């Protein structure tokens, strides 16, 4: 039995803060002893990250995963697919997006073959990934396609003991209302229940946000609560799920302060992400939930405005690494 998991760690979009974050996190002895970390990406990008962070990470370069000879080293698989001469930090690059997609493909295939116990990716840029030739609405759909998953997946955010998931995610706001259906709400409530149970929650308490101002005010301000959300909640309650709502979204974080819910189901991306990120920008994690491979990432993005300055906070990436190890069963 292995004492430590073998975890893939990608550098994210090279134009952002990803390689700097990877260098900073691997500087921590606590993080290094958690797993055998296998950095996958271009060595020159990794070196750029170390230089921006002002530190040097000891690692052993290997040609493939079979060359790992110790649980206690950091390894690098150099894909040699992106030279820092071809992009500028803080500026979107198609080349970098293409390398990001190639790197994630490589690392997910290793995980699919059980040669990695999980994957942590430093922040990527969705637009660059798309322009680089990976035509998916977001990385979750890209991962699902690579792993041959058609349904049953969704983003999950984790902030300490509080979990979040969403009825809609990376879609234009004008599509949200049509996607808030009874079936979808019921499915995501069930997804939240199953996810939290699988990580050890006993009878998790789930709260569901409304879509409209003041939960629609009896239909005056919108009818999705009456027609779609409430019936889905009632149906979930009848199946024994400990779920409440819909509650007005503008005060739902206040409710979380006074009543200890375990999971908030929101209707659209910014509804919960805004509050979640305010709770601790340096702690939030995103999990690609419902896939056969453990995949985590920090909840923040590529931060082009500070790329190359060495001031990025590695806290959320460290949390993503710790959670990935836990989800991998170690
Ligand atoms: N983990 C991932 O792969 C994620 C990727 N993204 C992608 O990142 C790109 C940029 O997204 P934005 O909405 O601009 O959000 P962002 O999170 O990149 O930046 C928002 C603000 O937070 C600051 N910030 C972010 N991370 C920080 C850190 N570790 N330390 C200090 N300050 C930090 C930035 O400087 C900026 O002012 C988009 O393409 C988005 O899709 C967004 C969230 C997660
Ligand atoms: N890459 C994960 C991701 O995009 C999650 O962040 P968010 O866009 O949902 O805030």
TrEMBL record:
<dbReference type="InterPro" id="IPR005255">
    <property type="entry name" value="PdxA_fam"/>
</dbReference>
<dbReference type="Pfam" id="PF04166">
    <property type="entry name" value="PdxA"/>
</dbReference>
<keyword id="KW-0560">Oxidoreductase</keyword>
<dbReference type="GO" id="GO:0050570">
    <property type="term" value="F:4-hydroxythreonine-4-phosphate dehydrogenase activity"/>
</dbReference>
<protein>
    <submittedName>
        <fullName>4-hydroxythreonine-4-phosphate dehydrogenase PdxA</fullName>
        <ecNumber>1.1.1.262</ecNumber>
    </submittedName>
</protein>
<keyword id="KW-0520">NAD</keyword>
<keyword id="KW-0479">Metal-binding</keyword>
């Amino acid at each position: 039995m292995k004492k430590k998991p073998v975890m893939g760690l990608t550098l994210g979009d090279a134009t952002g803060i990803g390689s700097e974050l990877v260098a900073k996190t691997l500087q921590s002895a606590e993080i290094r002893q958690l797993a055998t970390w296998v950095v996958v990406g271009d060595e020159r990008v990794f070196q750029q990250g170390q230089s921006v962070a002002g530190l040097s990470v000891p690692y052993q370069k290997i040609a493939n995963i079979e060359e790992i000879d110790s649980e206690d080293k950091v390894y690098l698989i150099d894909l040699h697919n992106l030279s820092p001469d071809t992009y500028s930090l803080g500026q979107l690059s198609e080349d970098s997006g293409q390398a990001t997609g190639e790197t994630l493909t490589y690392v997910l295939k290793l995980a699919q073959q059980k040669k990695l116990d999980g994957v942590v990716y430093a922040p990527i840029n969705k637009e660059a990934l798309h322009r680089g030739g990976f035509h998916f609405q977001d990385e979750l759909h890209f991962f699902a396609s690579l792993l041959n998953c058609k349904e049953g997946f969704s983003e999950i955010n984790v902030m300490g003991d509080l979990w979040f998931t969403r009825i809609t995610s990376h879609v234009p706001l004008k599509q949200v209302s049509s996607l808030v259906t009874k079936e979808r709400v019921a499915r995501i409530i069930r997804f939240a229940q199953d996810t939290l149970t699988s990580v050890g929650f006993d009878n998790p308490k789930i709260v569901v946000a409304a879509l409209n101002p003041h939960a629609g005010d009896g239909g005056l301000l919108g009818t999705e609560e009456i027609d779609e959300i409430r019936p889905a909640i009632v149906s979930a309650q009848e199946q024994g799920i400990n779920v409440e709502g819909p509650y007005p979204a503008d005060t739902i974080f206040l409710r979380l302060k006074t009543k200890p819910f375990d999971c908030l189901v929101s209707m659209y991306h910014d509804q919960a992400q805004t509050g979640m990120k305010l709770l601790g920008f340096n702690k939030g994690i995103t999990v690609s939930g419902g896939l056969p491979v453990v995949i985590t990432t920090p909840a923040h993005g590529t931060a082009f405005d500070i790329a190359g300055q060495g001031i990025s906070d590695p806290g959320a990436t460290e949390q993503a690494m710790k959670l990935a190890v836990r989800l991998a069963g170690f």
